[in-house]
Write a structure and sequence with these properties.
The protein has one domain: Aldolase class I (TIM Barrel). About 40% of the residues lie in helices and about 15% in strands. The protein is α/β, with parallel strands linked by helices. The chain contains 13 helices and 13 strands. The chain is globular, with a radius of gyration of 19 Å. Belongs to the dihydroorotate dehydrogenase family. Type 2 subfamily. One of its GO terms (cellular component) is cytoplasm. Its EC number is 1.3.5.2.
Length: about 350
């Protein structure tokens, strides 16, 4: 039904307007009692799907990537479609509008999306207000810095978000890999990234002691555009800072071998979707093999089928996340992946 009726209708609209309309529709349907129906159609409850990663027990390994529910407005409703976890954000200390519209583009022949949203969000305090309600699903908190914060002061932005979200999320993701905030990717360089992660690790220990709580796992989200030498640096940084894992990968600034109209291909921003499938899997495999699987990896990028997800898991990912594939394929993709994982276990 989604691919034959709803998706074609949504794709007639501007991409950002379609996103907001989808949110309103899902919220409305769940409010009038459709939650149980969605769960019956899409959710699989099976102990064989459960997986413990960085100390957290996931009901299944298929999550929703950051960027879809930036402001933590719909995480419980989205969990009805069978996600094992939902990552909110990217959140920044202060609200910001993001980049000027139009800033979200569908490249339909490539089953891809280009976005230059620019960390548009209502600020971390606003999200915390909604995160205080009971969670039906595990929540990851993806954090970043405000556009106007210079890189030399970036640590303070990440700490503000970390402190605010500590009581309300199950794990953290440090986003230094979005291409849509000027200068942000410079924080992926070894020295500033090590300093940032060590500060967050120290804060994690301090807050856990103060609150008599468990430390929250800290993950790093990296770009697919890193060289092999830079990926080796990432492995070294994870070992030196003792963070809990890596999310591979964010969107790419590359535009190779695309079929879509040149006017769309030339739009600046991060490219996600099918063109990213191969590269994100390569990065996962490189990290897993070169580190001797020293840390958990969440695989994301170009998962549009159960085969795509299984490839990432076989390459070394412990969990996977959907974003663009969820938009193109709909919620049935989550169930298909989980069924494929169960089938693979039986073989």
């Amino acid at each position: 039904m989604y691919k034959s009726i709803l998706q074609p209708l949504l794709f007639l609209l501007d991409a950002e307007k379609a996103h907001h309309l989808t949110f309103s529709l899902v919220r409305f349907l769940c409010k009038i009692g459709f939650s149980s129906l969605f769960e019956a159609i899409y959710k699989i409850e099976d102990p064989r799907l459960e997986k413990e990663v960085f100390g957290i027990r996931f009901k299944n390994p298929v999550g929703l990537a950051a960027g879809f529910d930036k402001d933590a407005k719909l995480y419980n409703e989205l969990s009805n479609f069978g996600f094992g976890f939902v990552e909110i954000g990217t959140l920044t200390p202060k609200p910001q509008e993001g980049n000027p519209k139009k800033r979200l583009f569908r490249l339909k022949p490539d089953q891809a999306i280009v976005n230059r949203m620019g960390f548009n969000n209502m600020g971390v305090a606003d999200a915390v207000g909604r995160l205080k309600k009971k969670h039906k699903v595990l929540i990851g908190g993806n954090i970043g810095k405000n556009k106007l914060t210079p890189n030399e002061n970036a640590v303070s932005d990440y700490l503000i978000c970390f402190d605010a979200l500590f009581d309300h999320v199950d794990y953290f993701v440090v986003n230094v890999s979005s291409p849509n905030t000027p200068g942000l990717r410079e924080l992926q360089d070894k020295a500033p990234l090590t300093a940032l992660l060590l500060e967050l690790k120290s804060e994690n220990t301090k807050l856990a002691r103060q609150k008599q709580a468990k430390e929250r796992p800290i993950l790093l989200k990296i770009a697919p555009d890193l060289t092999d030498d830079q990926l080796l640096d990432i492995i070294a940084i994870v070992g030196d800072t003792k963070i809990d894992g890596v999310i591979a990968t964010n969107t790419t600034i590359g535009r190779e071998h695309l079929k879509s109209d040149a006017s769309l291909v030339s739009e600046t921003g991060g490219l996600s979707g099918k063109p990213l499938t191969k590269r994100s899997t390569e990065v996962i495999r490189f990290l897993a093999e070169r580190s001797n699987k020293a840390f958990p990896i969440i695989g994301v990028g170009g998962i549009h089928s159960e085969e795509d997800a299984l490839e990432k898991l076989e390459a070394g990912a412990d969990l996977v996340q959907l974003y663009t594939g969820f938009i193109y394929e709909g919620p049935a993709l989550i169930k298909r992946i989980n069924k494929a994982i169960l089938k693979k276990q039986r073989q």
